[in-house]
Structures are given as C-alpha cells and as structure tokens.
Amino acid sequence: MKLFPLIKFSWLKAILPHGLFARSFLILVTPILLIQVILAFVFFDNHWNRITDRLAYAVAGEVAVMVDLMENPDAKVEFFVEALQALNSEHLELNMQFRAGASLGEEQEAFSGWGIFVGDALLREINARIKSPHRVLINMQNKEVMIKVAVKGGVLFVDIPLRRLFSSTAYIFLLWMGGVSIVLLIVAVLFMRNQIRPIKRLAVAADWFGKGRDVSFFKVSGSKEVRLAAQSFLDMKERINKQVQQRTSMLAGVSHDLRTPLTRMKLQLEMMGQDKDILAMKADLNDMERMIDAYLQFARGEGDEETQDTDLVLLLSRCAETNSKKNFKVDIQTEGENFVVPLRAFAFERCITNVLSNAKRFSNEVEITMKRRGNTVEIHIDDNGEGIPEAEREEVFKPFYRGDKSRNTSSGSVGLGLNIAQDIILSHGGDIHLNESPQGGLRVTIELPV
C-alpha cells in the first residue's frame, strides 16, 4: 500500500514549453527569479525596513523635542520658533514654521508608492512620541514630508526632505541585482543558442534524409553528446544508402541475367511452330518477362535521381496525357496555387503512372484533385471502378499481392505497382492510403510535404 497517492502533473505538461531552448531558458530563469525574490524579501524585511524605522525614529524624536519645548508653559513661542528655525535649517534640514491660530485642516494621511513604507514608519514613530493631534503628508513629486502638529496657540509646520527618511540603497540594490541578472541571462541565452543550433541542424538533416533529399550540407558539430549523435546519424545514413544500393544492384543484376535465357527460349519457341502447347509456353514466357520488367522497375525506384523543385501541375498533366486513351479518361482539378514541391520527378511520375495503370484495368474514368493544406500537398485520384474491399486496402501495398482471387496474371498485374508507388511516396517523406471514392470506386490519397 502506498503511503502517498500518485500525483498527476498532466496539467503542468500542458502549460510547460515544448522546445528545448524554451525549457533550458526556463531552467535558468526560474532559480534566478527565486533567488531575486528571496533576496529582495530578506533585504526589505531586515535591512531596508530597519533603516527606515531608524531614520523615522530620529526625525520623530527631533519633532517631539520641538513640540515639547513649545508646549512648555514658561516657553516663549516666538523666541523658540526663531531659534529652532535657525538651528534646524542649518544642522537638521528641518524647515519649521509656527502659525498662530491655525488648524490641522481636513487633509487625511494617504501614502502611495514608496511613500507607503516611509509614511507608515514615520507615522508609527510620531504616534508613539507625540500625543498632540497631528498630520503626516508626503509629496512624492517634490520629495518632501510635511508634519503638522497642534501646539499651544496654533499649529507647528515642519517640512523635511524625503531623503532624511528614505535610503537610496534600495534602488541601488535592485538595479544591481536586476542588471547583473539580465547580463547573465543574455550570456546564457547566447550560449544556449549555440548549443541548440547543432541539434536543430541534426533534426533538419534527419527530416531531409527521410524525405529523400540531399544532406551533404550536414557536418558534425556541437558538444560531445551532440557530436556523438550526429556521427551516429551519418553512419546510419551510409549504411542505409549502401544497403539500398546493394539491393538495387542485386535486383537489377538478377533481372538482367534472367533476360538472357528468356530471350533464348523465346527464339527457340518461335522456331518450333504454333501448336497449342507452344502458345501456352509463349504466354508463360511473356508473363515471366513482364514480371522481370516489374522487378527492374522496382529496383529503379531507389535510383540515384537527384531531388529538385518540380511543378506538380505540369507533372500530373503529363501523366494524364500519357495514360488517357479512347476508353479511359483522366481529368485534373487543382485548388489553390504554388504546387512546386522538391521531389525526384521521374520516380514520382512512375508512381502516378502505376496508380493510373491500376485504375485503368478496373475503370474508364479517373479524376485527379490536388490542393494544398498548410505545408502539405494532397493529391486525390478517384476512379469509378469496383473499388477494393476495406479489408484488402492495406494488403494491396504488399509486394506481389493481387486482389483477384484466382491470383493469375491474365490481368497484366504482377502485384508490385502499388508497392512501388508506396515505396516512392515514403522515400519522399509522404504518405499514401486508400479510401472509398465519391465516384463509387477507389480513392488513392497521396500526401507530400512541401
């Protein structure tokens, strides 16, 4: 039995940034902000508030002395006012004025900004030392504090500069703390960008390689761990390319070697007459030759053709014109513009031709619709044939799979057409899948990244 229930933080994952740079920046900023908050709290609570209290204590004591002297029954107010005014202005920076017969007025003590801390501290000390009615007013614009105290015969006005109650160390401390933190963050951001840049280049190279594009621009760089991952990617790329080349060479070699005995057999059959058995053998040889051609086509699907920017509208129009026959019609419709996509033009044309050839055997009309959706180009190829059962739509992409139950080759299909098409689309980083067509037949959907 667990002592503590498992706490789920799925909500936290939703609000946290997903990028490596943003997360690294958050890791750096969070402790700095926490340290600044803690230091600011300690500074204001222990240092700045204590200094403010002591400054307020001194000012309140000076004002209390003046009030006590003026409240003395034997004191001559006019003499004390003149004497204290001269001494205070010269030594204590207090501007003192006595107004006979005046009143405190209706002004209420209200502090704002930094004046809240200063005003509260001063008012607290004056309340403790002066029992006579009084008011404390702070003018933050003029940086002055006015203390009004009701004394014998009138009101004592005392003007004090705010600097006697306010310590500038708060500003200096906050400026230094904020300035140093900003400088450190800028240095950290520049350093993180240099560390993350090789990772982004690796991600771009992997994406381009998956789409069959040239990645010769990619070089190993960055920290030790990133360089290790980059070198592993390059090694993997070389192994994949070598394996593909070996497979292509093997299939091409085997198919080429099989052509020689087939050609010899065809010549011998041509010289043996035209009876029933000879015709059957010729049909078998033609089927074998057709399968070999399909193997060669499959092998060429991973050739050394370079990727280049290709206008899909022109390419599809060429395929439609080539495959259109008297009893087979191909229409093209486009939605939007800018259908220039980096791809291997001959390989992609072979893919479209295979799809159209497959549709040609089962329908008499095909409609090609192309539209752009964000960074993806969608191509829908709809025919009006019988379609393919949903259970077989994934199976038809397997090599040598034919949908007809008898699995004979009378239809001219070897079972590699859609497999070659899928192989070409996947090598471009796209996807191909089958659905039911609005025309009642089969819809082949091709998605290509731009």
- In spatial order, strands of the major sheet run 6-8-9-11-10
- CATH class group of the largest domain: Alpha Beta
Order of helices and strands: HHHEHEEEHHHEHEEHEEHEE
Our count of domains comes out at 3
Unreliable parts:
405-410
Strand content: 15-25%
Count of β-strands: 11
Corresponding CATH architecture of the largest domain? 2-Layer Sandwich
Question: What's the overall average pLDDT, rounded?
Answer: 78
Characterize the overall form. Answer: rod-shaped
State the share of residues found in helices, binned by percent: 40-55%
Helix segment count?
10
Would you give the CATH topology of the largest domain?
A: Beta-Lactamase
* Secondary-structure class: alpha+beta
Task: Walk me through this protein's architecture.
- With 450 residues, this protein is of the alpha+beta class.
- It has three domains: 19-170, 2-Layer Sandwich (Beta-Lactamase), CATH 3.30.450.300; 220-304, Helix Hairpins; 306-449, Histidine kinase-like ATPase, C-terminal domain (Heat Shock Protein 90), CATH 3.30.565.10.
- It is built from ten helices and eleven strands.
- It has helices at 10-15, 20-71, 77-92, 115-129, 169-210, 224-270, 276-300, 312-323, 345-360, 417-427; strands at 95-100, 134-139, 144-151, 154-161, 308-311, 329-335, 340-343, 365-373, 376-383, 431-436, 442-449.
- The strands form three sheets. It has a five-stranded mixed β-sheet with strand order 6-8-9-11-10. It has a four-stranded antiparallel β-sheet with strand order 1-4-3-2. A two-stranded antiparallel sheet has the order 5-7.
- The longest helix has 52 residues, at 20-71.
- It is rod-shaped and about 155 Å long.
